[in-house]
Design a protein that fits this description.
By secondary structure, the protein is of the alpha+beta class. Helices cover about 30% and strands about 30% of the residues. The protein is globular, with a radius of gyration of 14 Å.
Length: about 130
């Protein structure tokens, strides 16, 4: 498992492994009643990241609330996203934390893009394995 060196700002650096980041992100989404969270370990099939986390919400407000809570909880741990996309439309929010990439969908777009199928060569990780 790689260790992320994550930039909070240009002067402060925090080291946290990808498993810890994934655990905090899942907790944050669970707090906002995320549906069907899937954690996919892709470190052996891609150099993009260690984990993809896919979750969905019932509507735009819930999808944004999930992203807000992930950002807040990881921010408290000193971890800031490298990139955040799709927040305004909230049909697919991508949060790139380098070794952990989080995809938060509304139900319709999750079915349409079907990232779980695309990344089926990755290993599905049970939530409890992150503890």
């Amino acid at each position: 498992m790689k260790h992320c060196i994550l930039e909070k700002n240009r002067k402060d650096w925090t080291s946290m492994n990808s498993k810890e980041i994934a655990r905090i992100a899942c907790e944050a989404m669970e707090d906002k009643k995320a549906q069907d969270i899937k954690i996919i370990n892709i470190e052996n099939v891609s150099s993009l990241a260690d984990y993809f986390i896919v979750a969905s919400g019932m509507n735009r407000n819930q999808v944004q609330a999930m992203a807000d809570n992930v950002n807040e909880m990881l921010g408290k741990a000193g971890v800031e996203p490298k990139q955040l996309e799709g927040y305004q439309n909230a049909n697919w929010i991508l949060m790139d934390y380098r070794d952990v990439v989080i995809h938060i969908f509304d139900e319709e777009n999750r079915l349409f893009y079907d990232l779980e199928r695309i990344w089926r060569d990755g290993e599905i990780v049970e939530r409890e394995e992150l503890n």
